């Protein structure tokens, strides 16, 4: 890959990419060119086409060109109809910064092995519904994810496991948002997200959790329903069977120190990537130039007819 602008990866990740993602170094240049040619010919996608971004999609789709086309089309189509998530991604905006500081989504820095899935900590009880709405939380979540997707080869190649801390939240806490929006968010984070989800671990589950988990599962693709979904109740001992203390923050019986330091780190990291995040607001689809069927057109109850997509495009 000497002529390509792609970060070199460790031998451990290279072996993983070859064994699990069908990566063949000799074929990458041709694969990237095929994707760029498709983007140019399709005309309707306004997207990034640099080597590093595109190889992330290739790895997410196990080097299937057809799957890349499908996922990338959904990736940009769904973003174009979620302005409440994709507009105003300025981490220095006072309101957005307040949501970032809330620290609902917190990537953890360590794993036991260098080819383990990365860990995303999601803290339900950090969500203050008096300060912001669920779409604002998802906005920050996607901002973090976009930076991770660009920068974190371990995450792209090995996937991500979520630890979801429901804290003192009641089940009603999770229904403060429109269920139609939640379905859109599910499409964004499953069919349209190039990050591969490996499992879900729930901790501090509240009364009524069965209702929440059933809704959670109903919004999943069959593929994600088959992933690891474990409820640890309020037992840190149970959590530690899967996540040793050495890779967890203090609040979860771990040795990494307080969660707040990682919230602060990511606040600064998003600020450092301000130009990148703001630029991505302009990416999406132009339905007037589309030659194929819109991949989310069948979701008429969520998005209306295909023609209505044009009204919601981001400039």
From TrEMBL:
Domain CRAL-TRIO positions: 161-260
Matches recorded under PROSITE patterns: CRAL_TRIO
InterPro entries registered for this protein in UniProt: CRAL-TRIO_dom, CRAL-TRIO_dom_sf, CRAL/TRIO_N_dom_sf
Protein name per UniProt: CRAL-TRIO domain-containing protein
Organism per entry: Aedes albopictus (Asian tiger mosquito)
Lineage, opening ranks: Eukaryota, Metazoa, Ecdysozoa, Arthropoda, Hexapoda
